[in-house]
Design goal:
It contains five helices and three strands, in the order ααβααββα. It has helices at residues 2-17, 19-32, 45-52, 56-64, 81-90, and strands spanning 42-44, 71-73, 76-80.
Length: 91
């Protein structure tokens, strides 16, 4: 457990360092959609990993610590853009 917390804190620092690139990735994703309400856009777990430039272990730790909350729909782990943006603002 302690190793996971140290690993997560180190990766959160890396996410904070890459924040401008990550925010631009989120904006590009939002621009490519055709929905009127862009806050309701859903992102699959693999797309989240690519957007945040993290791995599956970090994603699991983020979910365990309630930094991001997935919606389990038909066996898919989906995240809203609003949830991702909230995470980026807080960390």
């Amino acid at each position: 457990m302690e190793l996971d917390e140290k690993y997560l804190s180190r990766k959160l620092v890396e996410i904070a360092d890459n924040k401008p690139v990550i925010i631009s990735n989120v904006r590009k994703y939002k621009q490519n959609s055709r929905l009127k309400n862009k806050e309701k856009l859903l992102v699959h777990e693999k797309a989240l990993i690519k957007m945040l430039k993290i791995n599956v272990r970090i994603t699991r730790l983020l979910v365990e610590k309630d930094y991001v909350k997935p919606m389990h729909i038909f066996g898919f782990n989906l995240y809203t853009i609003a949830e991702i943006e909230r995470f980026l603002k807080n960390y």
